[in-house]
Amino acid sequence: MISLAGRDIAHSWAKFLLTGFGLGLLIGVTLTMAGVYRGMVDDALMLLNNSRADLWVVQKDTQGPYAESSSLRDDAYRSVLGMPGVAHASSVTYLTMQVRQGGTDVRAMVVGVVPGHAGEPAYLLAGRHITRSHYEAVADVKTGFAVGDLIKIRRHDYTVVGLTQRMVSSGGDPMVFVPLSDGQEAQFLKDNDAIVNDRARTAANPALNRLGVPGLLEAIQASQSSNHNVNAVLVQIQPGFSPEQVAEPLRRWKHWEVFTRVQMEEILVAKLIATSAKQIGMFLVILAIVSAAIVAFIIYTMTLGKLREIAVLKLIGTRNRTIASMILQQALGLGLIGFIVGKTAATLWAPVFPKYVLLETGDALRGFVAVMVICALASTLAIRAALRVDPAAAIG
Known about the structure:
The protein is of the alpha+beta class. The chain has helices at 2-11, 13-51, 76-81, 180-188, 192-203, 206-211, 216-224, 243-254, 261-272, 274-304, 307-315, 320-349, 361-387, and strands at 55-58, 72-73, 86-101, 104-113, 126-127, 136-140, 150-153, 156-164, 175-179, 229-230, 232-237, 257-260.
């Protein structure tokens, strides 16, 4: 019967291959959806790895700086440095925005960092790190920028002095690193018109004018044109201290929210991308059902086309198990062709996707097993139709 199954496939090989190709494209989409989820998780973990932090100090009662907004005074790092077990602490800002180059906009996460401290890129592909306190930037290659390019962030132009790779936000947006003061200005400083309006409103405030405190109005107006906030403080701990051992005093005495690496992974993976993961899971279920329906329909159609041949087999004494095995082999063969086409297609088109697609070997193996199981289950409809064939139909 193995020979019979092979001959039956060879007889209609064009239809069989075209069906396998179509099924393969569907399987390729399924593998890609799984790769998109893996890529989202990898982006989130890459964000944490790139920060090179052991602890994240953020605003009280928030889950910042990635999942929620967080605001701290920019001198908070000094208090952190005075706590036991802290080796290094540096302030950082994060802002996702449109960065303009010429006439085009690129969506990126602008990161304000202290050069030489945690938060800046761990390595460069070209150029150098930021050395000046203003108007220099290091960009991920995904932005499409090149060393020497001029980019515009808010009101100022920045020169790209270095390029890095796989420095992305949890949403997959490439990062652009700028000096901390520039990052603060981009995020917290109001535009010129708003500052002028606020100064006029302050100067016209009767209550402030009645106080008559020398320099009070000037001090308030100066504060409106400056910024002293950051989103988080990245902390590196000393050897011999556990993250929780350092974090607990900061929570208790400084009244900040402090997250360890494990807790931050939980926020990013289990909470920030949880909805996307559920959506991708639903797509995978739908695609699996559609794949099963396609295989069942094709194998059932092929079986109906050879009912007379099956009746002849029964008439000469062929067992039902042998006939069922023939149909099962055809279904598994269709699944094998489909998986090969799907895996090849997913590998070829994954680099073209705007978001990072991570195709893992484990997912491919699980996908192969799932395809074979789905094909085996889908063949049961055709097997039942074949087993109900009356041997007398061969001579009718």
